[in-house]
Amino acid sequence: MTSNTIELIATAPMGLEAVVAREVRDLGYDQVTVENGRVTFVGDALAIARANLWLRTADRVLVKMGQFPARTFDELFEGVKALPWPEWIPEDGEFPVEGRSHKSQLSSVPACQGIVKKAVVESMKQRYGTEWFRETGGRFVIEVALLNDIATITLDTTGPGLHKRGYRKLVTEAPLKETMAAAMILLSRWQPERPLYDPFCGSGTIPVEAAMIGWNLAPGLRRSFNAEAWPLVPSALWQEAREEAYDLVRDDVPLQIAGSDIDRSAIEVAQASAKAAGLAKELNLQTLPVAKARPLGDYGCIITNPPYGERLGDRSEAERAVRDFGHLYAQLPTWSAFVLTPAKQFEHYANRPADKKRKLFNGRIECQLYQYFAPGGLYAWRKDQEANPSPEQ
């Protein structure tokens, strides 16, 4: 690995590795390896900036510094010391060490962190000729991850997780992560020319993420990243990546995105998020029980994360809300629906079996993405568009 060719890891929630891999390939990086919880790919310093700005469904972007067997502390120390730390970390860099261990002989995480820190210091001493490092500069978070006696050593380029887009200042109870909301939209294959409705929109994460996808807004444009202070990723590269992102915005695309929720305070939070994201005029958000929801248009997508007790207060209310969803969806014969919930009885209460199910984890909660496809689906929508083109086409 050199500063020109860098092995990067996009960490992924369980079940979303393939979605993250598709995003990485869409950015133009084709040397991709998919593993549990991570997608490894090869890029350059510019790739660090582009991946952080563009990846909607990954948790963070890491530099893979090295990987080697480590059954003893000596093996861990020597393996870490041999890595090119001074190429990445300047003399004043701050380099805390985080760690985790699973099914490995080196099971004491604090001890492993201490060994890694000592090894990095020894490597830095040889380059900088000093015994003490002030650590007052940029932040270079090192992680040692031990699995089956193999140590993987990484540097975190991201900082706070990629789900922190910068637009959500307030949250409701049990909020859906922005990365998961984006994944649901990408899995639905929704296109911005189609209507999208979320009848349990809560703090508005799904409508906001859909609008960002519809306008091709890079999700990281409103925030900063650890690697912006790294000498190997100079400010000119970040400027180049941001200029590329701004050039690719399609804010002339008309959107038909709406959301509703029975909780007025949740809608106020959703409206604040939409305003912070610069999308307040593009989203129709209103206080409304699902029983009164009436989505407009044909061949649309319902994409939603219904409450399961937390926000509605108790299980019976949540069950009633899902039954009302079933009644709503029965009135939308040309629409598809994608529903994320941990509720085991969802299909029973919705009064319809899903066409397809996919296991996902919302945080640590195991959920199913229940997928309902309208007859004809995208094909029928495209045929309808060809037969009835809009005046703008």
TrEMBL record:
<dbReference type="GO" id="GO:0070043">
    <property type="term" value="F:rRNA (guanine-N7-)-methyltransferase activity"/>
</dbReference>
<keyword id="KW-0808">Transferase</keyword>
<dbReference type="Pfam" id="PF22020">
    <property type="entry name" value="RlmL_1st"/>
</dbReference>
<dbReference type="GO" id="GO:0008990">
    <property type="term" value="F:rRNA (guanine-N2-)-methyltransferase activity"/>
</dbReference>
<keyword id="KW-0694">RNA-binding</keyword>
<protein>
    <submittedName>
        <fullName>N-6 DNA methylase</fullName>
    </submittedName>
</protein>
<dbReference type="InterPro" id="IPR054170">
    <property type="entry name" value="RlmL_1st"/>
</dbReference>
<dbReference type="InterPro" id="IPR029063">
    <property type="entry name" value="SAM-dependent_MTases_sf"/>
</dbReference>
<dbReference type="Pfam" id="PF02926">
    <property type="entry name" value="THUMP"/>
</dbReference>
<feature type="domain" description="THUMP">
    <location>
        <begin position="47"/>
        <end position="157"/>
    </location>
</feature>
<dbReference type="InterPro" id="IPR000241">
    <property type="entry name" value="RlmKL-like_Mtase"/>
</dbReference>
<dbReference type="GO" id="GO:0003723">
    <property type="term" value="F:RNA binding"/>
</dbReference>
<dbReference type="InterPro" id="IPR004114">
    <property type="entry name" value="THUMP_dom"/>
</dbReference>
<dbReference type="InterPro" id="IPR002052">
    <property type="entry name" value="DNA_methylase_N6_adenine_CS"/>
</dbReference>
<dbReference type="Pfam" id="PF01170">
    <property type="entry name" value="UPF0020"/>
</dbReference>
<keyword id="KW-0489">Methyltransferase</keyword>
